[in-house]
Design goal:
Rossmann fold; five-stranded parallel sheet; about 40% helix; alpha/beta
Length: about 425
């Protein structure tokens, strides 16, 4: 077995041999979930707590008897944020009988999209991947299920507009991006909103792994002098950007980070909450440990006489893992019910996802509504700000520039 392949199994039940066609074993009443994350690679600071949150939610469901009489088995792959292990890992998960794949990484999602359709296995890419996959007619087996990079960019610009007095005309917006497909993904939305709102923007690309950006930040702060900054960085890069912006005297309250630059670990690595005071982050799941589902998980650990995982301290990423697992479970539940209580196939789970409506998980998730046409669920975001030693919510869930997003989707689709 390759060294990069690590299989994680949600606790509470024995492993069973699964049919290659993706059906759960009727005798063992078990359903297989494929899940990919990064536990050892460049984005492990994201992947580890995210993976723990995913497995903890599945364990919670299993502790209550499973889903409609079925126990859940998680086959987890550590893809190290590399495409070849992700593709090989997917094949392993398919052979194990997975009826759903939780993807990890935009390049990895792009590499697997065609296989998902061919194999009729739905894949989820919450907060990453191609924003075009919102279109369920063109991407029938790919589900963003949370605000895409387009929706995050639109949400960031909406927030900037609010912070700048309700008008972006004549303003200067800087976009600091990780120079890879994910970083470039929001550019059509940035261009479209700039044209509508009448602001100037400039893109500052940071080469991977994003730990050297002193030259870009110096150019940004000393020459361009923007009115507001949107960052889109991963791994160690978000903390580096905060340090460099702070060192060059740029106010943190005029910075908003897209989804992968706003975790507790990023803030701590940048010098702590005092140093990052005012820093704004875009979230597609709630931050903090006070949500009912998280309290349930903590109680599960207590009842088992175990200490809760340290990964709970990274609530932003941990909660996203919970969100992903909860959506997977909800889609599977819908599929089983629609299938007369029988074990679902991947195609059944696809339809189950497309019938999710009003699902909020006690406030941890925005009011998702997935349909055959809209696999994103509305593109909801919420701003959290570093304030008083914690991440504090700023307002409620909202959608940024929805009409522009719809037009960009049509324009990009017309390009083929």
């Amino acid at each position: 077995m390759r060294a990069w392949l690590k299989v994680g199994v949600a606790a509470g039940f024995a492993a069973a041999t699964m049919a290659a066609a993706g059906l759960a074993s009727a005798q063992n009443k078990e359903i297989v979930l494929g899940f990919q994350t990064d536990r050892t690679g460049a984005t492990a600071n994201i992947g580890v707590p995210l993976g723990t949150g995913y497995n903890d939610y599945v364990a919670l469901v299993n502790s209550k008897g499973g889903v409609e009489g079925f126990k859940l088995k998680v086959v987890e792959i550590d893809n190290e944020y590399k495409v070849p292990p992700a593709v090989e890992g997917y094949e392993r998960q398919k052979k194990e009988g997975a009826v759903i794949i939780g993807l990890f990484g935009t390049p990895h999602t792009q590499a697997l999209t065609a296989r998902l359709v061919e194999d009729k296995i739905p894949g989820t890419s919450p907060g990453f991947g191609s924003a075009m996959s919102r279109d369920g007619q063109k991407y029938p087996y790919l589900f963003p299920m949370a605000a895409s990079y387009w929706s995050q960019m639109a949400g960031g610009l909406q927030f900037a507009k609010q912070q700048l007095g309700g008008n972006l005309k004549g303003k200067k917006i800087a976009y600091i991006m990780y120079d890879n497909p994910a970083g470039k993904e929001p550019l059509p939305v940035l261009e479209a909103i700039a044209k509508q709102e009448g602001f100037d923007f400039r893109v500052f690309a940071v080469p991977p792994p994003g730990v050297e950006m002193g030259a870009q930040i110096l150019d940004l702060t000393q020459r361009y002098r923007p009115d507001f900054i949107i960052t889109h960085l991963f791994g160690r890069a978000p903390s580096v950007s905060m340090k460099e912006l702070k060192r060059n005297g740029y106010p943190m309250r005029k910075v908003v980070a897209m989804a992968w630059g706003g975790a507790e670990a990023d803030i701590e690595a940048a010098g702590g909450y005092a140093a990052a005071e005012g820093y704004n982050t875009i979230q597609f799941a709630g931050a903090g440990n006070e949500f009912p589902v998280v309290r349930e998980i903590l109680n599960m650990y207590s009842q088992q006489g175990k200490e809760p995982p340290k990964d709970l301290r990274s609530s932003v990423m941990y909660n996203r893992g919970v969100l992903t697992a909860a959506i997977h479970v909800e889609g599977i539940r819908n599929a089983i019910k629609a299938n007369g209580g029988k074990a679902p196939t991947g195609a059944d789970v696809k339809k189950g996802f497309e019938n999710i409506s009003g699902f909020t998980l006690g406030g941890l998730v925005p009011p998702l509504k997935i349909t055959p046409e809209d696999h994103e669920g509305g593109g909801w975001v919420k701003i959290y700000q570093v304030k008083g030693g914690a991440l504090q919510p700023v307002g409620d869930w909202y959608q940024g520039f929805p009409a522009v997003l719809e037009q960009v989707l049509k324009n990009e689709a017309a390009k083929g």
